[in-house]
């Protein structure tokens, strides 16, 4: 997919920053700062471990620069994104921030909030390091604005092996019927069959069901306007999703993904649908009794998302930020980060043997997979659309009103899907 929207040009500011940074010999872009404030939502567990890996690679590659942690906790950026939005609005950006590749990044590009770093891509050799599909995805009107740190997979079910074995589940469910049968076995054992958290985690679950009920092409079509939200596959998806919700914990709307994950670790729940940051988080927390499988019925579909980093307009230390970005894209940086984060490197030159077991499997899957994007994690939809979808799912969790959900999702697609 190639984005065609006119990028907001702010060549003047970009040129000014570059001149200041290069012309003065001062590596702070003229502001005197050698601190690089890195804004993410990676505050704990496997996420923090991944960030720490990147920070150590940065320390080696960028002598004279200091990392400053601007992390705001909350899964999927639930809190970070609003803090970031107000900082960008007040023109007090961090030196760099985490943004999902795809539609979410486009929001920042269209708002003129991030710099074109195409020339750095050339000098850092990144056009050859990343797969062409990803480069195409990051390119807007011939320009590139971010450096991807990884590829994550969203459509994965995690389980507590002891709990599923005790319930008599002997094989991974391959389709929804088998999944429901396994959930019934867990229910009979008195554990929560499927742990889930609040809005965005429910959106992830719903998206996985839609991939099964629509197939990958039609699922992708929901986000590019070729599949209507009243398609019979969506109607079936809502019915299946409703049934799945009946197997979940009642306190779901109050939980973050790590709270649902804790139910798995504590043996109180059997399964959880979550992105593969869960592998790293379980590892970081020392929990070993886990297994995983692709969401039943998704086949070889790999629902991808990528964390990337940008150079915001008005960053205090653009040269330091560039060293951070160069580190993020480097072989060393990607290894230090991804071996701890549960994701696979965006670069194609990584060696699977360097990675934990889960990522080795994901790297193999990615090669032959059918990729589809994620709305919950910004590769498929803009932040406005994502917010509307989260609210629609949050409301559905309480009212279970199928018609209201279809209406809200149709309205969101109409409002946010036509901004091409
Ligand atoms: C990010 C991941 C992160 C996850 C949970 C996703 O949106 O891309 O890096 O681990 O949210 O916080």
Helicity, as a percent range = 40-55%
Query: Could you tell me the radius of gyration in angstroms?
Result: 21 Å
Roughly how many Å apart are the termini?
Answer: 13 Å
Low-confidence stretches: 1-29
| Main beta-sheet annotation | 5 strands, mixed
> What coarse outline follows from CA principal-axis ratios?
globular
Give the count of helical stretches: 19
Structural category is alpha/beta
Strand order of the biggest β-sheet: 2-1-3-13-6
Portion of residues in beta strands equals 5-15%
Strands, count: 14
Q: Mean of the pLDDT scores? A: 93
Bound molecules: beta-D-glucopyranose
Describe it.
There is one protein chain. By secondary structure, the chain is α/β, with parallel strands linked by helices. It is built from 19 helices and 14 strands. It has helices at residues 11-23, 45-61, 80-89, 103-110, 118-123, 126-129, 132-138, 161-166, 176-188, 199-214, 216-224, 232-245, 257-265, 277-284, 318-329, 331-341, 357-368, 383-399, 402-416; strands at 35-39, 66-69, 96-100, 139-140, 143-144, 146-148, 152-153, 156-160, 192-195, 269-274, 290-294, 301-305, 307-310, 370-373. Strands 2-1-3-13-6 form a five-stranded mixed beta sheet, with helices on both faces. It has a four-stranded mixed beta sheet with strand order 9-10-8-11. Helix 2 links the parallel strand 1 and strand 2 (66-69). Helix 2 (45-61) packs across helix 14 (277-284), helix 2 crosses helix 15 and helix 10 crosses helix 18. Residues 1-29 have low confidence and may be disordered. Bound molecules: beta-D-glucopyranose. Beta-D-glucopyranose is lined by residues 41, 47, 75-77, 100, 152, 275, 277, 305, 307, 377.
């Amino acid at each position: 997919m190639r984005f065609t929207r006119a990028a907001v040009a702010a060549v003047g500011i970009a040129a000014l920053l570059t001149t200041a940074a290069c012309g003065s010999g001062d590596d702070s872009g003229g502001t005197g700062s050698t601190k690089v404030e890195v804004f993410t939502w990676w505050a704990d567990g496997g996420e923090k471990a991944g960030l720490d890996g990147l920070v150590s690679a940065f320390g080696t590659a960028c002598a004279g620069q200091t990392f400053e942690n601007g992390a705001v906790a909350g899964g999927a950026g639930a809190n970070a994104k609003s803090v970031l939005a107000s900082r960008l609005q007040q023109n007090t950006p961090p030196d760099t921030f985490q943004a999902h590749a795809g539609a979410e990044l486009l929001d920042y590009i269209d708002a003129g909030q991030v710099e074109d770093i195409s020339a750095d891509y050339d000098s850092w050799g990144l056009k050859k390091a990343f797969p062409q599909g990803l480069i195409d995805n990051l390119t807007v009107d011939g320009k590139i604005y971010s450096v991807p740190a990884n590829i994550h997979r969203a459509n994965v079910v995690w389980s507590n092996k002891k709990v599923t074995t005790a319930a008599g589940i002997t094989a991974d469910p391959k389709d929804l019927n088998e999944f429901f049968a396994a959930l019934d076995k867990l229910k009979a054992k008195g554990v929560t069959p499927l742990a889930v958290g609040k809005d965005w985690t429910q959106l992830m679950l719903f998206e996985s069901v839609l991939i099964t009920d629509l197939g990958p092409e039609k699922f992708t079509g929901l986000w590019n306007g070729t599949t209507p939200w009243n398609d019979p596959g969506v109607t079936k998806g809502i019915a299946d999703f409703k049934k799945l919700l009946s197997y979940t914990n009642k306190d779901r709307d109050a939980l973050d993904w790590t709270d649902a994950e804790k139910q798995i670790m504590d043996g109180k729940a059997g399964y959880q649908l979550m992105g593969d940051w869960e592998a790293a988080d379980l590892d970081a927390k020392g929990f070993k009794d886990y297994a995983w499988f692709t969401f039943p019925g998704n086949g070889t579909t790999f629902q991808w998302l990528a964390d990337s980093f940008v150079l915001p307009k008005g960053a205090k230390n653009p040269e330091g930020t560039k060293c951070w970005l160069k580190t993020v894209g480097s072989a060393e940086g990607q290894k230090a980060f991804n071996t701890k984060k549960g994701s696979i490197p965006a670069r194609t030159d990584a060696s699977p043997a360097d990675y934990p077991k889960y990522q080795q499997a994901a790297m193999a899957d990615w090669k032959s997979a059918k990729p589809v994007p994620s709305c919950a994690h910004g590769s498929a939809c803009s932040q406005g659309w994502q917010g509307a979808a989260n609210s629609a799912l949050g409301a559905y969790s309480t009212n279970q009103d199928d018609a209201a959900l279809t209406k809200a999702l149709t309205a969101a697609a109409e409002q946010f899907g036509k901004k091409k």
